[in-house]
Amino acid sequence: MTLATRSRPTLVRQVIDQLREQVASGEWPVGSRIPTEPQLVEALGVGRNTVREAVRALVHAGVLECRQGSGTYVISADEMTGAVTRRLAGAQAAEAVEVRRAFEVEAARLAALRRTPEDMAALDGALADREAAWRAGRVEDFVEADAVLHIAIVAAAHNTMLAELYASFAKTMLRPSIAAFVGDELHSEDRGGHDRLVEAIRAGDATLAAAEAGAFLEV
């Protein structure tokens, strides 16, 4: 049975899977414009309505975005990231801090149990960059170094789902959340806590690591 002779629901699902694969493989990277509807019809050998339904499904899933007069663009590599990003876009600042705490406390606990020498090297490097930015009074560099440190802690937890969810959060909310807390100038209270957190992870003390991670995210 050829692609064009399959039943409509099955055909739409197959086209959705094919389009999703183009994104997942990197052939259509995030930010790129996908082929036009006529080009997709020709390439896939299906009707316009089938292509429209498939594209509409991926738009609803947050993978694609239709821009009037410009075309359809890839905005996320997968449905989960797209859905999380859409939800976070309307989040309140207090909610963002609560979500950070939920992610980062558990990530710190797991990192203390699972960290590798490579993880610790990444944490030490990020902590050093954070310290250097603080000493120099460079707010933007400090915010970036702080974000990189927290992302490295989540990576050290070695939980793929947690890392993917946190990446979606970090893309939309992490840096703005840190920047809002820091403000326009760096102060002494911005510096503390993170060295103790890294040392707790190094020592394998899961309870202390979780406590340190939560201490500077009280809401």
UniProtKB/TrEMBL annotation:
Positions of the HTH gntR-type domain: 9-77
Stored CDD domains: WHTH_GntR (cd07377)
SUPFAM superfamilies attached to this UniProt entry: GntR ligand-binding domain-like (SSF48008), Winged helix' DNA-binding domain (SSF46785)
Organism the protein comes from: Phytohabitans kaempferiae
Highest taxon in the source lineage: Bacteria
Keyword annotations from UniProtKB, A to Z: DNA-binding, Transcription, Transcription regulation
InterPro entries tied to this protein: GntR_C, TF_FadR/GntR_C, Tscrpt_reg_HTH_GntR, WH-like_DNA-bd_sf, WH_DNA-bd_sf
Protein's name according to its UniProt entry: FadR/GntR family transcriptional regulator
